[in-house]
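Changelog-adjacent note: as of this version, every example in the card shows the full chain rather than a window. The one below runs 1722 residues end to end.
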Amino acid sequence: MEEYRYTMNNTDLDLDMDEESESNFDIDAEFADLFSEPEEEYFTDGLYTEDNEENSGVSDIQAERSQLLLLRRHLDMLQEKMKNQEFQVLKAREELNACRTKIHALTEEQLNVKEEMETMKSIGNNASYFRLLSQIEKLSTEILNEKDVETTVKANLQAAELALSEVALEQRHYMDLGEKVQEQEKKVNDHKQMMAQYRLLKENDGLMQQRKLWRNTERLYNQQIQDAQVAYNEKMQDALINNTKARQFLQHSLEKIKRKQNVQDYAAQQFMEKKMKSIMELKKSISSTHENLKALQARDRARRREKKLAEDKERLHVLNEGGNPDQVILQRKKLIEQEAAAKAFAEKQNNAHIRIAEKILMEENRIKQRKKQQPQLWSTPRKEKQKELGPLKKRPVTNRIQLDKNDKPIFLDEIRETESHHASTRSTMHDHTIEFTNEDDDSELTSKSNTLSSPTSLNERLQSLAATRTDHGKGEGLARPEFQGLWTKKHKNYKVPNDDAVVPKPVGGSKMEKAILKKTLDKHRAGITVKQVAAGREFVGQPFYSKPDVIHFKDFDVGKTYQKRIVITNVSYTMNFCKFSGISEHLKDFINVEFKPPGQMSAGMSCDMNVTFTPMINEDLEGEVQFLAQTGPFSIPLKCSTKKCDLCLDVDFIDFGSQVVGETICRSVNLINKGALGTRFEFFKVPDKPATTYTTETSLGRLTTAETAAMTPVDESEFAKTATTMPQDPQSKHRRQTTKEGTVGMSTAPTAAQTADSFPAPFTGENERIQNVDIIEETSFADRDMLRSEGDEIKFASTVTDYSMLPEEIKVGQTMSGEIAAFSSVRLDVIFAPTIPGTIKANFRIAFSDKDSEPITVRTTAKATDVPVWIEKQTVDLQICMYDRLYQDQLIVRNRATTALRLNFEVPKELRNHVELLPKTGYVQAQSTFTAQLKFLPRKNLAEEAAGLFDPETGILEAPMVIHVADQTRPVPFVVTAIVTSSDLEFEQDEINFGDCGIYESVTSTIRLTNHSILPQKFGFVDVPDYAEVQPNDGFGTILPLETIELDVIISISKAKEYDFKLTCKNSIGRSFVIRCKAVGVHPPLELTTQVLNFAATALGDTSCGFFHVVNSHVSANEFTHPVPRIGKGEIVPVGPTSFEFAIPDHAPISITPTVGTVMPGEKCHITVHFSPTLPENVIREEAVHVFQVQREEEKKKEAERQAMEQALAASKVEEDKSGKGKKSKTPARSKTTESGHPKSGKSDGGRKSTSSNDEQVIPIPDQIEKDSIAYKAAAAALTRSHTGSFESFKIPCFVATGRCDDIKNPPSKTYHPADILYLDVHCPTVKPPVVVISNHGQNLTEFGQVSIGQNTIKPISIQNISDHSVDLTLSSLDTNGPFQVLNALRTLEPEETHTLLVSFTPNAGKLSYEVLRIISATSVLSVPLTGEGVSPIINVSVEDGILNLGDVLQGESQTSTFTLSNSSSLKVNYSVKLDSCSLLRHNLSQQFPDYVIKNLGKKQSNKMLAGPQNFDGSCVFDCVPCEGSIAPTESQEITVTFNPDHDSRHFSDGARIVLFNLEEAHLLHLKGRAHKHMMFVDGYDPQDVSVESLTVEKKPRDPESDAPEPVESILLTFRSKINEVAFPPVTRQLIIGCLRTNAFVAKKNGEWIFENLQHAQSLGFVVDPPKGVVDVDGTKTVDITWNPPEGHNPKEPVESSLTLTLKADVSLTYNVLLRALLILH
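Full-length structure tokens:
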């Protein structure tokens, strides 16, 4: 094994060696000694069967192994069986012990019972004796059963022990074999472990082989990576080369983009300037408008004031005249309103009439216009006459008209007719004048005749006509048509027949014919088409698909024939048919369709169709080819389009760039015709100021100076569109005038207005206006050529403007006009030859002879320079730069020369330390550019070195620089400008000292940061510790130029130690600015679970609640296990109780409970915070004073008005007296009195004195106003309504001190340490309540006062919604058993709406009641306290002890008794007597334990139901009269109780409850009574039954043969004699024998009794005295029965005996009296 371990170690070492040092060793050789051991057979394993096949003892070894396995299995089975048997033995022993224990217990219980039996027998207790006797018998039976069980268990135990012994014996037999098996198993396990190690070695060998393979693979992989890296480097070099090339192109692109951006920036700047200007103008206009509005408002106020004064004067005048001023003014107002309403109605009616007239006129104009546009829709008398049927007319000879080149009409029919009769043709055609009668003929001629569409088609037609005449001259005729037309007959004039001869027939037939035709067509169509349904789906849509979708003949020529093949495919669901039904009516003369119906076609099948098109007119045609399928008709669209021109340019803008003066550059544009029709074009330059006159003699329609003197540059675009051949109006052709000479009659030049109207207005929609003006058609290009061939001249208008003054630097090349064929292009050149420096712009136009082609404009721009070397940017603006920062820009120098030039860049001497141009010398190639690099690095000494170029106050740098060019005396100047500023950020302070900072709080310090730069800088605080933060925005932001901002540095430490750190602020360029911070960490002894308490928005008068805990977590002073309270590194706070005290600020609407307390270590204290916002008292008092002042002013105003009215009345009376009496002597006195303004009456004087006294009354100061005053309440209500909401934050300090509050002489607020103070932030938002109480002067408290119990008092509570939105209200739940109750429900209150709640107070007990009614809204709760006191009346009952016994009565008879209720209180009392037997809760409360059970248990029952047995007929046994009523104060009421049983019972009882006001139970009376069947009864014996009766009546069987009466009932008398030291004292029991009165016997009959069988009882010591006697009616007798224990009495045995008692009255009753006596110790 040692060799084996060595080999394993070597193997582990070899696994880590290199490939060359690995050694291959033979694993089988290492384990050769293992297989040579003599015990090899025990190590044989199934994995090595190949080695064991050569061994001859393989079968023996396998057998031995099998035997070993069987032996092991048998041993295991014996062990398991041994365990089971041991368990069975233990189980049987436990059962036997339990059985013996139970037998022993039963035996002891039997002995005890026997002893008790002897005792009972000795005392004569037979009942207990027999009960114990039965118990002994039961115990004997149980003992016998248990003994049987014991015998069975013993037998089981013996069997189990026997089986256990047998198993143990068998196990001993196999003990030796077991030891041998264990040894063999141990050897096998050792062999398996060796085999496992052997397998591990083989796996390690395989692992080494895999590592060799992996290293080879890794070597190949590394080689591939190196190859890939080489290839990647090559690609990177190529990419760098390409990137260098691309960078050059990118620079050019960026330059272009930058130039474009500069242009856009300039445009944006201009736009912003315009916008700012417009905004300023708008601001001025707004301010002026405000001033005007103020003036207008002031004017309106003055007018209203004047109007009010006038109304007051008029009111006073009417009042003086004795009238009613209100009535007069109201009548006048109504009259004015009525007049205004009538005026408004008239104006409205007039406007309505005007609108109606306008609509009528518009409708008439629209109808006239539609008549002009579509005259065929309107009927005229002539049209109606033409609709009448008559004989057929011959077609007029003018049905086919064409025009020649001289615009003469050519009548084809006339030519044919003339040529058929004459052999020679005419040399000259006669001119015919085309006359049109009306617009209807004009439209018909236009639609049916072939008009001249182009000069080409006209020439072709003229040539064909000439060829036809030539052929006729040779004797050849036209082709004969297939059928004979009307043109072969001679023309006869049509005569209109008389109306009497021909009866006109309505067009289209009569109504009946139309109906019949429609019905026939519908029937025919319904039979042709059917619906196609396949697989439950109906086919909808076009059943056949054509390829192509549209039959289109493009670019056709007249006279040629075109043919297309169309494939039609069935795309329906199933088979279908296809039938050609025709084509559009207007295409029948040109289109021929060849289609053979294929018959029935399956879905997806196709057929062919050939369409032949023979054009005869040069017009666009559109129509459709119609088919009929089985599912319905369908059609294929068909189009025929003529040849057209499609002209465009490849570029429409030419930029020549910069060009040196004297050189010429040429740019070209390509004119492309994508259409199939060629045209002529003319390329010319459009002058900046057109000066030609547009006349009928011009060729291209140029304008004159007289016409275009006021043309603006904006009009040039319109001129470019209109300065070409004018398109002909179709209707204008028919307005041409012809002359007899055959030439077009030209009128004189039109006026300017006519010329302007004759111009077409494209894109403006004025063609309708142009159509209504007679214009002269412009001559086309072809017509002009023909006119020239005939010798006509074209007169050009003389120009007014001298074109030599116009710039000619940009001009047209050699190609100025020509022809452009179809599908071709033409190159047009534009030449730029500058003469003077500057920027030049010019426009060129291409006009076309095609009337449908619009002219095209080409815009050009160029710049002429006079220096071959120039720089693009004359000013290099580096904008705003910072010190010690590098800024770069490029200088692009361009060379226009044809040779390379040398450049020298010169920097001023003052700026050589700051500005650098690289390279300093360079060569710019011919016709190329040179790029130089400008580097600007401003230093701090820039102001000193470049004093003349740099302004240190403004920071502006302007540095002129030049570029010297070889062989050029004038250098190229440029200027470098920049604004240099600083990048400094400065803190206002160098250090922040936070002082003592608690670990549960955050301390904030404000710092100021200033930006000294004129650029906004981004800043950010970096490397901030975890316990510190900078706000806002986490210390990041942008600071504007020269701005100072405030930042909050917040520190939230977590440990008690000293802190010293730095805050680093970096700007956008990486500069750092540091500020130092210091703090001392404090761990206070206590902590708050929350530092900030946020209350919800709370309404005035409402209360919000929040809570937190004060925790004392300081339980150990070991600072190494947990943090301990201390200040910095100071002393540790001792462990113990810690006190706290919250200092609430004055006048804060906050309450904290508890405010002061002590917290023990490891405990916490619950703190509750209430927030009850209210209005401040000083504000309410000030508002109350203001209310006083307002009231005083109103009173003064009313008093002044009253005095004015009195003066006016006095003056009116004086005037009446003056006018009535006419006495001059009294008039002056009365006038003086009137003028004085004071009446003479004493009452008036008194009123004036009172007014002066009120004026002199002093207004109270705010402190003199009491809270209960009406003014205070009104002010509070007004302020509540006008409250707009507020937000307050309170910082409440919590003083902490060690020790208990009791132990400290001073409170914590005086013995605290400043560093241990905790702070609680309370945020309190206050809002206006949506609902307030408006009743009781706005006071929420509602008092009901004193109310008697059972009485009901109702008080209203009015609430109002003072918010600006509707409020949904709900009520809180009041105590359902309480005295307060809300009688009506709430509803949703709209703004300013009120609601009244009715609350009732019904006290049910004599106590003070208090509840809070909460009116709950969505945002607040309105609390309304309710208070009231219930007064309880005093009622006395005459029954003592609460028990009223009605005695004994005979069943079926009744007995009465009375008791009295006295009212000793001062309130009237309503009472009611409620019996328990009539209660609804009787059955529920009767489910309690009976009295004898409760008595034995020693418990008491509350609210016990006293109702006992009831009558069998359901009636009540007891009845109280009167059962309810009222008792006045100091009076009484007698109540009569009747006892009326219907059967015998000793347990009749009931409860009479005296209830006041149906609420409060004042007294409870227990009513009792007994009923008997017969007159005689016995009482005084031991009860043997329960107080609850059964519902069933048991009848005892009686022997009819026996004459002697049987005992009716057994009576038990128990005698208990207490044993004393001397002797056994005698015991006496009394039996009461009574006789009842009955209504059945009129005469009195006494009752008798007698005791029999006394001998046995007397021998036992019982004595009856008297043994017989007589009882009177309604009387009772007492019989004494005494027991005196005789000598030799056994005190352990009870004494029992029996007597017979016979009662005789109405019947004879026999009772068996059982006597039982026993001795007791106590």
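Structural remarks: The chain has a mean pLDDT of 76.
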